[in-house]
Amino acid sequence: MEIKSLNVLGISEPTITMLQDNLESNNMFPALYILNNLMKVDFLPYENPLFNIHIKSHVDELDTSNPYFLGVNKPNNKITVFNEMNIAVERFTSIAHKTLAISSTSKLGKGVHINSLVSIAAFSIIEDFVSINRNCSIGHHSSIGKFTTVNPGANMAGFVKIGQGCLIGMGVNIIDGIEIGSNSIIGAGSVVTKNIPDNVIAYGNPCKIIRSNET
Question: HSE on the CB side for 172, CA within 13 Å?
């Protein structure tokens, strides 16, 4: 049976515009049911005649026969919403822009969001609820852990391993074989030439640990 609507858990204006761009590019889900109160903000999405947008305030107003999608971008927000909603991973769908170039040997998890002009090389693994923004390049045999967000213009060489819940800033470059630990933040424009441990904030060229990111 064809699915014609999508339950979106939490949303912001920038995220909904990116989401609509990606859905429109694949002619998917003309109706969006948005559970907006998760973000604790009010907004009016821009009008798009290709979509029917329905703002909901309670989870029991959603059509549970349709798939779910996390409409929040920051790793901590994604983790919080996923844990609070207690919805099985299998119920979530992934959405990618039509310009995604991905090897047939690479794998995407559930709830993945990939924007325009992204390339993912051979034998790479993108785990559940990863967000990859515009103009990013993921090298061969690389992996990105659950709930991680990769911001625009980031580039990763081959055999890079990124842990869970990380935030990779705009324009970051990561050389071959580097490992970045879980819950770490790499600042915009950094060049990562050495492994980065869990729970730190690091940035610079070359990238250096600045302080702890314990939560």
Answer: 29
In the annotation, is 140 catalytic? Answer: yes
Q: Around 38, how many Cα atoms within 13 Å sit in the side-chain half-sphere?
A: 27
Q: Which residues pair with 29 in a beta bridge?
A: none
DSSP 51-118: -EEEEESSGGGS-TTS-EEE---SHHHHHHHHHHHT--GGGB--EE-TT-EE-TT-EE-TT-EE-SS-
Among residues 54, 58, 113, 140, the one annotated as catalytic is: 140
Averaged pLDDT, groups of 10, the chain, 215 residues long: 81 82 87 78 68 86 92 91 93 95 98 97 98 97 98 98 98 98 98 98 98 85
CB neighbour burial string for 1-23, b if at least 16 within 10 angstroms, e if fewer? eeeebbbbbbbbeebbebbbebb
3-state SS class at 18: helix
In CATH terms, 95-205 corresponds, of 3.30.1330.10, 3.30.930.10, 2.160.10.10, 3.50.30.50, to: 2.160.10.10
| The predicted structure's pLDDT at residue 206 | 97
Q: How far apart are CA 109 and CA 93, in angstroms?
A: 9
The reported pLDDT for the residue numbered 122 is 98
